[in-house]
Design brief:
InterPro entries: DUF1638. The chain has about 210 residues and is α/β, with parallel strands linked by helices. It has 11 helices and 7 strands.
């Protein structure tokens, strides 16, 4: 399965295709990583459905979207996994998943589970602004335009004045993405740091249960 382009994953998500036993309902920002894990490990039992990645800018949409997706697909799959962290839902998504009887990946956000929850918590980096590979590619859609910086770039200092660096949590080793993240850091006036995480806790969450 080849995912649609990043714009479609941002705005519309991804419908499932295949005849697997397990459905992963995920954020569109994780589609490339989940499909890469599926290919690398031969996880033919997994199908993937994604909700629009831009909902991270509107977290109130995530819980209703998960509820609707589970209701739509429950009859077709033996198991449903939710590849969303809390993502700004204030614990609401975890409560919903418990109510629905579906397993959800642990963590406050994807930065934490890519880095590893324990490692991320131990670092305690309140002045760091994070990008994943997907967000490095979709920086304008998630950061620059929503904050109005395309119209008022003078507001960069107001929004990012308390940050001192941009950390690119890199899932892959791609020079083009490294360059994109460096460019994002320069636009925000921040130092750049690249931290290779791979797929972190996401790989363990998706691995078949014994």
């Amino acid at each position: 399965m080849i995912p649609p382009g990043d714009h479609a994953l941002t705005e519309t998500g991804l419908a499932p295709s295949g005849k697997g036993r397990v459905l992963v309902i995920a954020c569109g920002a994780l589609a490339h990583e989940i499909l890469a894990l599926k290919r690398a490990n031969g996880w033919d039992h997994l199908d993937l459905a994604c909700l629009p990645a831009i909902w991270h800018n509107h977290p109130e949409r995530i819980e209703p979207g998960i509820r609707a997706a589970v209701a739509q697909h429950r009859a077709d799959y033996a198991t449903i996994l939710v590849a969303y962290a809390d993502c700004g839902t204030g614990g609401g998504l975890a409560r919903l998943c418990a109510e629905l009887g579906v397993e959800m990946i642990a963590g406050p956000h994807c930065y934490a589970f890519f880095d590893g929850l324990d490692a991320f918590a131990a670092r305690a980096e309140p002045t760091a602004f994070y990008l994943t590979d997907f967000l490095a590619r979709q920086f304008d859609a998630f950061v620059w335009r929503p904050l109005g910086l395309d119209r008022h770039p003078e507001l960069v200092a107001s929004y990012f004045g308390n940050y001192d660096r941009l950390i690119h949590l890199a899932q892959t080793d791609e020079p083009a993405l490294d360059a994109a993240a460096r460019a994002c850091a320069a636009r925000l006036g921040l130092a750049h740091e690249r931290r290779v995480t791979g797929y972190g806790d996401l790989a363990r969450f998706l691995a078949p249960r014994a």
